[in-house]
Records
---
Amino acid sequence: MSEILRVENLKKSYDGFLAVNDVSFAVAKGELKALIGPNGAGKSTCFNMLMGQLRPTAGEVYLDGERITGKRPREIWRRGVGRTFQITGTYQSMSVIENVQMALMSHHKRIFSIAPRAWKLYRDEAMGFLDTVSMADQADRPCSVLAYGDLKRLELAIALCHRPRLLLMDEPTAGMAPSARIELMQLVADIVRDQGVSVLFTEHDMDVVFAHAHHIMVLNRGELIADGSATEVRNNPQVQEVYLGGGTLFKEDANA
Ligand code: ADP
Ligand code: MG
């Protein structure tokens, strides 16, 4: 499998404090990869450098072979790197489908068109995206009445409107109940399988990570200490050292 993302010796220093220290990894095309690690490990800092919000102190980022280090968020987004935000970016006063239509207008460069024609134009396409995230039955509801998990699914539909090649999801299931977390990540896994999108995500819930990620990376104090399959990561002594303090992060081990 070829790579969609390659990160080489990435570093971020805050006044001498190394939040991300010499991190190198790759994400393959069509892969669902998790980046896990304790609070403060440097996961969000890493994501922000991939998206262009933060300039790396050192290192390089390549998207499908093209160097994108130091490019602006919009330039990176335009090259097909999508992102879902921890705080939902939907317009509360609009309906579910109108939010998706807005994203489609932006994607097709008819930015904020008020022509009724434009709204009609993208309704079918928007419905298709809502169908992908199982939200078609809620198309005409105002966003303000949506349940939190449904807002997250809408957010995912909006991100998909821009046909990302790579989707970055920093704690996509934050604030959700355990069953809803599993459901949302199942949906993401289906999208990865059906649409060939690559996804890099961070997540606290180890059940979600081990159930869905193809490969898992572990970051600790800014350093990548593991990168491999679920079994490899579980059996990694350094990972066990970091997580054993928490006791039951690996459910199977706890039940064994
Ligand atoms: P994670 O997402 O894994 O919880 P972060 O990337 O948010 O970790 O943070 C990594 C480390 O960098 C933490 O110790 C945090 O306090 C520090 N940090 C993050 N942002 C800044 C900043 N703007 N200035 C100084 N230190 C920061
Ligand atoms: Mg974070």
---
Amino acid sequence: MNAQIERAVEHFRALLEEQEARARRLEADESASGGEHTGKTVIGVIGGDGIGPVIMAQARRVLEYLLADEIAAGTAELRAIDGLTIENRLSCGEAVPAGVLEEIRACDVLLKGPTTTPKGGNLESANVTLRRALDLYANVRPVRISAEGVDWTFFRENTEGEYTLGSRGIELPGLAMDFKVITDAGTRRIARAAFEYARKNGKKRVAIVTKANIMKKTDGKFSDVCHAVARDYPEMEVEDWYIDIMTANLVNPALRARFEVFILPNLYGDIITDEAAQLQGGVGTAGSANLGSRYAMFEAIHGSAPRLIEEGLGDYANPESILRAAQMLLNHIGRAGQAERLQKALEICCETERKCAVTGDQSGATCQAFGDYVLETLQGLEG
Ligand code: IPM
Ligand code: MG
């Protein structure tokens, strides 16, 4: 046993040294400027696994339509990136094969279909690997319930917390330990992103959500740093909430419409955004942005739905979430007009008119038919 403890201590020392160096790099990056901008925006389109290629085909059609002028003028390019499949990842033994990562790095922004993460084994999640490799620190997840005036935007820290060392915990006989990492600089940048968003979008209330009563060191730091950043935004009403009661608040119709912007460490953000999306209409209805200072990746918040594929229902997958992600992408690349048109079309197709609804099985429309409907609606909006 002693030898095992010694090995674990060595492992822990290496992790500490590595994370301390990362924290210092992050601090140095704080004063660096963002990425370079060229005249052309390259949008990498990654199908992913399971229902990914099905829903992505519709998102691609919509982007091709909305960006037709830019594509024709050569200022935007939709570039298919094929190798991020579970088959290829398993055969290379890499979460994101090196060649694929190189193709990805040659793009400016990405629209990514869901990728399968095998349970157990050694293959890490492609999502987590990409977020880390491209330093996509802000996971931004909007959720709306229009009938109630709910308009939430979650800023989930995307590279730290429980995810930094996710697969590198310690196991001794009868005992396992994982690690959670929070840094000042890593927290400052997510807090800054949330407060900037709030200011630019006329939001007044920001909730810092942690479990700092129990996770005293990490969540305590997260909360303190968020409050320090908040001092630069004196017009905001800043509140502290614990994740457990906030989870309850979101299902409390008497209270929930008062919340606007949320800042959370990684794992709480992961969990609560599924709950929030379900309240909006299901995880199939929510888009998500992963933002860094150089790259940005947009995706659905749901997974690859292998069950739908096994049951032969892949064609009935709902593309709404990836279309919402495409809308966020358009906004991000400065195409606010096109983003707004897509938002209007989705409002008509998913909320007000609903001429053709996807249910996930033969009782509803196919993904392709829904794509047709969105395109027709978009065309109708022009006139
Ligand atoms: C998400 C997903 C991912 C996460 C999985 C697929 C690794 O649940 O984007 O919310 O845990 O972040
Ligand atoms: Mg999740």
